[in-house]
Design goal:
By secondary structure, the chain is mostly beta strands. It contains no helices and five strands. Strands 1-3-4-5-2 form a five-stranded antiparallel beta sheet, with no helix packed on it. The relative contact order is 0.28.
């Protein structure tokens, strides 16, 4: 069993993709945090997942920081 958190991000909570993104979070890189339209965004490294949990492969994505727990 994998203890890493899985999040489902709405299309407006990440850049640059279409539709919801199911992601197993492996690392959040807050050292490269930047602000866009008054909101903080961070780089997240993880594994993209299908709805059934099947792994689709590694992904690095910009995510709205407020969407992630610290």
């Amino acid at each position: 069993m994998n203890a890493q958190p899985v999040v489902v991000l709405a299309e407006n909570d990440y850049r640059y993709g279409a539709g919801p993104l199911r992601l197993r979070v492996e690392r959040i890189d807050r050292t490269e945090e930047f602000h866009l339209d008054g909101e903080a965004w961070v780089t997240v490294h993880g594994t993209r997942l299908r709805a059934d949990g099947t792994e689709l492969g590694p992904i690095r994505v910009l995510v709205r920081a407020a969407r992630l727990r610290r």
